[in-house]
Amino acid sequence: KQEVTQIPAALSVPEGENLVLNCSFTDSAIYNLQWFRQDPGKGLTSLLLIQSSQREQTSGRLNASLDKSSGRSTLYIAASQPGDSATYLCAVPSGGYQKVTFGTGTKLQVIP
Amino acid sequence: GAVVSQHPSWVICKSGTSVKIECRSLDFQATTMFWYRQFPKKSLMLMATSNEGSKATYEQGVEKDKFLINHASLTLSTLTVTSAHPEDSSFYICSAIDSVADTQYFGPGTRLTVL
Fold it and tell me: How many helices (DSSP H) and strands (DSSP E) are in chain A?
């Protein structure tokens, strides 16, 4: 059974700092890995999708890397802004490429 | 881009009543949809796989008679919480698979509060 863990569970940084969120998974036979953002009481916003053949994806200030062999992914946020405050979830397919297991989440607070 | 909608976005009901939540794929057909629930300050947990034209597949520990799923068309799946109790209060999110794009899209979620 796929297990997905995110460290740290919570993170508070001053505005402008670069930061890294970590995601680890137990079954490395994945098709892809996806990072989401969730604002309080809201649904999911897809940030980045990395296919298993890729090592990283970039979108604006976000960069996600994937190391399948070690079962790890990182989400790098450059020059953090208060608007980045949210919970970040990573997710990997589990038991079939369509079923998804979500990580435990990292709650990020960027202080102005 | 592809969109998945949920209705209602929030609902408050009395204990013992049933509540229906709809999940629609707006510009693609989805033979497979998924239902997740999220407890406060917790991550999302898969409840069931909704298959168009056939019975849903439930994850271990999810009561199929409690959470009725109907996927009657290629663009609509419904989740009915029967005889709701306060412990059913949660955030319910659906997702739909666009098999052509080989992509999964998530709905905005429905917050259910049972009094």
Answer: 0, 11
| Model pLDDT, residue B9 | 93
Question: B45-77, pLDDT tens digit by residue?
Answer: 999 999 888 899 999 999 999 999 999 899 999
**Closest C-alpha to B21, from B64, B67, B52, B61:** B67
Strand B10-13 and strand B110-114: pairing? parallel
Unique residue bearing structure tokens 């999940």: B23
First to last CA, chain B: 37
Residue that has been written with the tokens 């979620």 in this structure:
B109
Q: Tell me the C-alpha distance between B20 and B26, whole Å.
A: 19
Residue pair A103/B43 in contact (Cβ under 8 Å)? The answer is: yes
Q: Is A96 a residue whose pLDDT tops 70?
A: no
Judge whether A36 is closer than 8 Å to chain B, CB to CB. yes
Considering only CA atoms, which of A57, A60, A56 is closest in space to residue A83? A60
Residues of B with CB under 8 A from a CB of A: 6, 32, 34, 36, 43-46, 49, 91, 93, 95, 97, 103-109, 111
Side-chain-side CA neighbours of B113 within 13 Å: the count stands at: 7
CA quadruple B104, A51, A88, A109: dihedral positive or negative? negative
Q: In whole angstroms, what is the distance from residue A40 CA to residue A111 CA?
A: 17
The residue whose two tokens read 């949920």 is B6
Nearest CB to A100: which of B6, B104, B107? Answer: B104
Rounded-to-integer distance, Cα B66 and Cα B64, Å: 5
